[in-house]
Amino acid sequence: MPKKYKYTLTFTYEGKRYKVRADSKLELGEKKAKKIEELKHGRKVVSGDMRLNVWAEECVNTYKTRQNPVTRKKYVQRMKSTILNEIGDLSLKKIRPLHCQRVLNLQAGKSPTQINEVYNTLKFLFSHAYSNHLISADPTQDLAKPAAKKREHRRALTAAERKYFLQVGKTDRRYYLYLLMLLCGCRPSEAAECQGRDLLQHNGVNLLHIRGTKTANADRTVPVPAELWELISDTKPFEYIACTRDGNKIDVSARRRIWHSYCRQINIAMGCRVYRNELIPPYPLAADIVPYCLRHEYCTELARNGVDIRIAQRLMGHSDIKLTANIYTNLQNDDISKIAAQIPGCGPEETSEKATGTEKE
């Protein structure tokens, strides 16, 4: 909960109303004087007395200049919801290790990624406050991360599972979102953004430009197998490749509903009995399959077909060396076209044969 101060003072400066809060009348007068000084010079007075939410804005604007707009928006939203809503009204010099640990403890039971992001944001804010001599000690120095939720197991599909995911995926345009994950390695959010203008051809190879923002390598171009190209190649430039029945973009809540529908139809295709529109257990589709298994399957398929790990890293849009080994940043359309033949259904000959209906002798 935001801190409640004992005194509040509202004043007018050049026709606008401003408010300051403090625990004593003396501090209230000092805060008013500093606020007027800020307004008079059109700048923030940087000191240990400034509230954390004011410092956070100053700190991000100064030290996060290389963030793209989408990343910046997500970063600031997460910082507000997890940190500033809890201790943002406290002045920098009054924040203690206890406050920071309590903020981090609120993330207990959440994903390791979420916990690490909050931890790193706290470290970012207070390490820079310390280096600017706004505080005498860094209150995040001895933070302990709380226990995280156990990470969901992600695995590749079996041959039978892959068969049904492809078969059912072609029956509904909403399910194309998951075909884009399975056959092009998109993240769910990336697949939702793909439009007709992102479909390209280079040296006879069908390609998809994925406008990713999650990592430095997320914006990338990948080959599109012929079986998927046939379904999506006529998408108009600003139409979403995967969309709702109304033609709208598939948002997060819609993704959950569509995934449930997709798995239901796969279960039925695999032989699950239905009574009064309800599936009757046992369910043929394994319960451990989650959407990211499709992206895992894509990367596994690259490895099965001998695609170099550095190229796989680029096609997956990874920037972490632990995920797909060395970072590879110079992959261009020419390089993708050369390795397309290593991915089933993506080579120029296979694309041409699929289009003409001919096969190799």
What order do the helices and strands come in, and which of them pair?
Elements: E1 7-13, E2 16-22, H1 25-41, H2 52-63, H3 69-87, H4 97-105, H5 112-131, H6 159-169, H7 176-184, H8 188-193, E3 199-202, E4 205-211, E5 219-223, H9 226-232, H10 252-269, E6 273-275, E7 278-280, H11 292-304, H12 309-316, H13 321-324, H14 333-339, H15 348-356
Antiparallel strand pairs: 1-2, 3-4, 4-5, 6-7
Helix pairs in contact: 2-3, 3-4, 6-10, 7-11
Features:
361 residues; mainly alpha; hpI Integrase, Chain A; two-stranded antiparallel ribbon; elongated
Query: Which word captures the global form?
Result: elongated
Question: Which architecture of the largest domain per CATH?
Answer: Orthogonal Bundle
Integer count of domains: 3
**Based on DSSP secondary structure assignment, what is the total number of beta strands?**
7
What is the percent of helical residues?
40-55%
In short:
The protein contains 15 helices and seven strands.
What do these coordinates show?
With 361 residues, this protein is mainly alpha-helical. The chain folds into 3 domains: 1-45, no CATH class; 50-151, Orthogonal Bundle (DNA polymerase, domain 1); 159-356, hpI Integrase, Chain A, CATH 1.10.443.10. Helix content is 47%, strand content 10%. The protein has 15 helices and 7 strands. It has helices at residues 25-41, 52-63, 69-87, 97-105, 112-131, 159-169, 176-184, 188-193, 226-232, 252-269, 292-304, 309-316, 321-324, 333-339, 348-356; strands at residues 7-13, 16-22, 199-202, 205-211, 219-223, 273-275, 278-280. The protein has a 3-stranded antiparallel β-sheet. A two-stranded antiparallel sheet has the order 1-2. A hairpin with a 7-residue loop joins β4 and β5 (219-223). α3 (69-87) crosses α4 (97-105). The longest helix has 20 residues, at 112-131. The N and C termini lie far apart (72 Å). The model is unreliable at 325-332 (pLDDT under 50).
